[in-house]
Please model this.
Amino acid sequence: MLITGAEIITECLLEQGVDTVFGYPGGAVLNIYDALYKYSDKITHILTAHEQGASHAADGYARSTGKVGVVIATSGPGATNLVTGLATAYMDSIPMVAITGNVTNDLLGRDSFQEVDITGITMPITKHNFIVKNIADLANIIRRAFKIAKSGRPGPVLIDVTKDVTGAKYEYTPMLKQEIPVNTEICSDTIKNIQEILTSAKRPLIYAGGGVILSGADKELVALAEKLDCPVCCSLMGLGGIPASHPLFIGNIGMHGGYETGMATAESDVIITIGARFSDRVAGDRNKFRDGKKIVQFDIDLAEINKNVLIDESIVADLKISIPAVLNGLKQQNHKEWLEQIKQWKNSVVINREDNPEAPPTPAHIIETINSLTSKNDIIVTDVGQHQMWVAQTYKFENPRTFLTSGGLGTMGYGMGAAIGAQTANKDKRVVLFTGDGSFHMNLNELVTVKSYNLPVVIVVMNNTVLGMVRQWQKLFYERRFSQTDPHRATDFVALAKAFGIDAVSIDKTSDVESVLKNAFEMNKPILVDCHISPDANVLPMIPPGKSAHDIITEMD
Amino acid sequence: MQSQQIISLIVKNYPGVLQRVTSLFTRRGFNIESLTVSETSQKEYSRMTIVINGDNAVIEQFISQVLKIADVKKAVLLPENAVKSELMLIKVSGDKSAIASVAEENNLTIKDITNNTITVLAVGTHEKLLKITELFGQFEILELVRTGLTALQKGDNFLIHEDI
Model:
């Protein structure tokens, strides 16, 4: 079949089962958009306000479904606007394919209009990238890009295609989507060694991360925890990997985890790390983290072994293969005393919280109310900052792929796009975006997309009028010098949303919370809830950077 | 233990692959002594020889990181007894007959002679080239260039065969 390069792109997307793409047109992708026009009955294109929003939307689509998210942008600024979205996806190992146009071959390298070396720019923030200068290579590069994005440890892949390639015609031969082979070979000695460490542990702790969700190994994780009778804590990326209601789940690990998880981390004798990578936000001082304990690591990426913390024994494979392999023949363990000890730690620290009906609501009160208004399959998206940590601490995530947040890169402005992507992919589910006034100001332009596609996202702005997380650090470590964190902005979010054609309500005091939120959720259409909270609500507890649970902060002004 | 190690990479031969490998050095802070690259007997592959400083953990981490680059097909730490060689060109001025005799005594090839300079080619291990540089230090060294180390495993071990 002799078709244009642009049509080869759309055909190859269909081969891969893609039915939705996010993007923004422009000069260098005119041919691709012409093909999308022709294929509009097969591929839905979601137009965002800005390419960054489209990149986060593709990411949110991927995180909520497990499928590869696809984003299309033009050359030059279109391509550079994807950079933050790609870096966000890369840090959290999210499968994405970005397709950018570039100038024609004869204009490459001549500083032509809207020309940029996007493969050079994105090399360190993509799993791989390609520039297609020859139409003969196009179809196979697209197929390879999807394969790379999904296989092993997933990640974003960028394909830059010159305009003459998308415009030229070439023979296209359809090809069936190929299944990615999974390595099932695991050394039996490794399994034996790990089983020995696990069964000799007196105070084991499972530290589960985003890998559990990426590989769909949540059931396997629970089975391992139950067999070992072992408490489980999750990194930010791991939340939902084990139901929050499970008796063995003890909360978040790391900087804003609970006192009990901090103490359990410090006092454990064996840490079983599953699909997690000892980020500084988890490990604190990585040189002290392993003091007095053994560490076992399950990961698909060999490069994660011994990267930040030295590992005693590791198993490098897909968690869906490695966890059952270790479970096979493992005797039921019992750690009643250890679990009891953790419970005591939990009860020993109480974070004071006053829900005064006339005062501004506490963040926890808002989140708990929304928790009760949503079901366990609904999707919670956050931006980055205090509100993100409050949600991670308070909301009870029962299922994988229900919590979408920028963990590794910590991208303020991630949430709007991600919520759009998640709602597009999950029409039957409720999508709630928690954002802060700081994060929301970064990408609120995407309200236009929410309205255009009538996406019934509930946008909850935790409006404390300050850049709260940085301000909290300034309180703790900079003697309350609030440099540029108290901007006195005058934005009226309710009026702003209405200007975009989106309904909006506000909450000023605790007694409003239930009724306003209940009404908002019943509307079943795009709505913004402007929640006025105290500028001095802090994220507690907090383990200062580089410290351990013994240094935990539970009170501050 | 901190030491110098030699790692050989087999990579797909196309423009851009060098950038992918080198960007890893800056991004993850690996301390690289030298890097050489050229096409192999199989045109579609290039071979890189990298001399890296670091303890075992660093070397292990480097190899597993570099293997994540989609176009890196193999990454192997060469054993201590690998065949190693480096090439150096050194341009000196001074007493010409004295320079020539140093070159002759050390089996070096004189590649160029002008009124004021002699350019000598030296081939050998890193240590040998350091020693030769030192010997020519008695004259005035005008310019010096080294290629960086290349190396192959001894005997029947090959890095390139069908299973790539």
User: Anything to note?
Assistant: Helices of chain B lie at 17-28, 56-66, 96-105, 126-136.
